[in-house]
Amino acid sequence: MTHATGLKYLKNGCLPLMWCPGCGHGITLGNMLRAFEELDFTNENTVVVTGIGCWGKSDDYLVTNALHTTHGRALAFATGVKAYNPKLNVVVLMGDGDGVTIGGNHFIHAARRNIDLTAIIVNNYNYGMTGGQASATTPSDSRTSTTVYGNPERELDVCALAEAAGANYVARGTVYHGWDLKNLMKEGLSRKGFSLIEVVSPCPTHFGRNNNMKVAVKMLNWLKEKGVTKEKYAQLTDPQKDGYFVIGKLVDKDAPDFNTRYEEIRARAMGS
């Protein structure tokens, strides 16, 4: 068996990619495309839906079907795609600003409906494309271009929100833990119902520079230290847990997805 590269999903001549040196989007994209290949996704049966932002630029490089949508609304468009044609593999790429800040309401309801798609949210703790402003996931007391003395708000836990809203599959990885990340994506893409893969990623241009991590390697080492297993996290005392986050599979269940439930209701309405 040959090693999956994912290159067959990339447009010819698209390299080098546009992202800043040290950004984790290239690692994330590579692992996603390797997962596509290992699952035998085709360009014809796959739709990649993106919003606006650095990670949303990904669709420009792909030869799959793609739908580039408005900021914060990618999941609404993707819901329509999947509801109309349930046979498609629908993958939604969003950043923390796009996915759960501006797009937070759509995120809640996509998970609540358990629509059969996979949301890959790259969380770099700020709005990377527009100047490094704070987002809903910016850690409390962190510095951004709009919180220059520290963020007074508490950060949002994307995975906990997805679980509470009813997602079938929830996982978190980092770009430091690359192969583990690919396997989480592959598993999420295989699941029926709403799947969330949160990818914690460095933004050395903005978040890192503003928080004493100006070099990409320093941010990667930070992800290595702070991303821990559920078992290790459980061993920490509450004060020690500050700044750490759990990586790995967090939720895996098999509740009926939206299209399954919709067809049941339609059959009932038609008296069959």
TrEMBL record:
<dbReference type="GO" id="GO:0016625">
    <property type="term" value="F:oxidoreductase activity, acting on the aldehyde or oxo group of donors, iron-sulfur protein as acceptor"/>
</dbReference>
<dbReference type="InterPro" id="IPR029061">
    <property type="entry name" value="THDP-binding"/>
</dbReference>
<dbReference type="InterPro" id="IPR011766">
    <property type="entry name" value="TPP_enzyme_TPP-bd"/>
</dbReference>
<keyword id="KW-0560">Oxidoreductase</keyword>
<feature type="domain" description="Thiamine pyrophosphate enzyme TPP-binding">
    <location>
        <begin position="59"/>
        <end position="199"/>
    </location>
</feature>
<dbReference type="Pfam" id="PF02775">
    <property type="entry name" value="TPP_enzyme_C"/>
</dbReference>
<dbReference type="InterPro" id="IPR051457">
    <property type="entry name" value="2-oxoacid:Fd_oxidoreductase"/>
</dbReference>
<dbReference type="GO" id="GO:0030976">
    <property type="term" value="F:thiamine pyrophosphate binding"/>
</dbReference>
<protein>
    <submittedName>
        <fullName>2-oxoglutarate ferredoxin oxidoreductase subunit beta</fullName>
    </submittedName>
</protein>
<dbReference type="GO" id="GO:0045333">
    <property type="term" value="P:cellular respiration"/>
</dbReference>
